[in-house]
C-alpha cells in the first residue's frame, strides 16, 4: 500500500472536511468510501482500514462545507507573514494542534482557502493513492505565483462559473460506479473528464473522483 510520511515544504500533506451537518456527512462518506471516524475532542480522524486518511470537523458559523488542503511548512509563523506579504489573508492561527505541530488557515490572493501545517514529526496523511484515499490535488487559480514553492499539485484556471479553490482528488476502485453511488446518496455531478469526475456533495463541498 502507498505510504507517505515525509513532505517537503509546499507539498499537500493533509486534507480535512469542514462539515455543516456532521452526522449527515459522516453517513455520506462512510457509505461512499467505507470510512470510519475516530473522535479526538471536537475533531475526528478519518480512517480506512485502521489508517488515517484525513480529518473531519465542523465549519465555523457562516462558512460553507468544504474539503481543505494543507501545505507543509517548516515555520507556520513565517508562513503567516508571507501569506500577507503576497496579498492573502490569515483567517486562523498559527495555533497549536496538540503536540503534533501548528497550523494556520488562510485565503490566497485570489480568495481560495487553504491551510498550512508545521509538523513536529513526520506527519501528514499516511495512506494515499488507494481507493478511498486522496490521490492528488488541483489548484484552480488566476495567480499561481502566490505559491512559489508549490509541489505535487496541478495548477489551472478555474473552470467557467467556478471560483478559485483547491480540489482534492480521491482514488476509486471504479470511478463511474462511485460517481453513481455519490449521486444516489445526494451528490451532484459538476463535470466529467477523461480521468476524473468533479462532484459536489449534498452540502456543496467540491471533490473529484479519480
UniProtKB/TrEMBL annotation:
Pfam families: Glyoxalase
Matching InterPro entries: Anthracycline_SecMetBiosynth, Glyas_Bleomycin-R_OHBP_Dase, Glyas_Fos-R_dOase_dom, VOC_core
Coiled coil: none
Every VOC domain range: 11-119
Protein name per its UniProtKB record: VOC domain-containing protein
Amino acid at each position: 500500500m502507498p505510504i507517505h510520511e515525509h513532505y517537503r515544504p509546499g507539498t499537500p500533506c493533509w486534507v480535512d472536511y469542514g462539515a455543516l451537518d456532521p452526522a449527515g456527512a459522516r453517513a455520506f462518506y462512510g457509505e461512499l468510501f467505507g470510512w470510519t471516524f475516530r473522535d479526538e475532542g471536537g475533531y475526528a480522524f478519518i480512517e480506512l482500514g485502521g489508517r488515517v486518511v484525513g480529518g473531519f470537523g465542523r465549519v465555523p458559523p457562516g462558512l460553507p462545507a468544504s474539503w481543505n488542503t494543507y501545505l507543509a511548512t517548516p515555520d507556520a509563523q513565517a508562513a503567516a507573514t508571507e501569506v500577507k506579504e503576497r496579498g492573502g489573508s490569515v483567517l486562523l492561527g498559527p495555533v497549536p494542534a496538540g503536540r503534533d505541530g501548528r497550523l494556520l488557515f488562510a485565503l490566497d490572493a485570489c480568495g481560495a482557502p487553504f491551510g498550512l501545517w508545521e509538523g513536529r514529526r513526520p506527519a501528514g496523511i499516511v495512506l494515499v493513492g488507494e481507493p478511498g484515499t486522496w490521490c492528488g490535488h488541483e489548484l484552480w487559480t488566476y495567480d499561481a505565483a502566490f505559491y512559489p514553492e508549490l509541489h505535487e499539485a496541478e495548477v489551472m484556471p478555474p473552470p467557467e462559473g467556478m471560483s478559485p479553490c483547491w480540489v482534492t482528488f480521491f482514488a476509486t476502485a471504479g470511478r463511474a460506479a462511485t460517481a453513481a453511488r455519490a449521486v444516489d446518496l445526494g451528490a451532484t455531478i459538476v463535470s466529467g473528464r477523461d480521468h476524473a469526475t468533479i462532484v459536489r456533495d449534498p452540502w456543496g463541498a467540491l471533490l473529484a473522483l479519480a
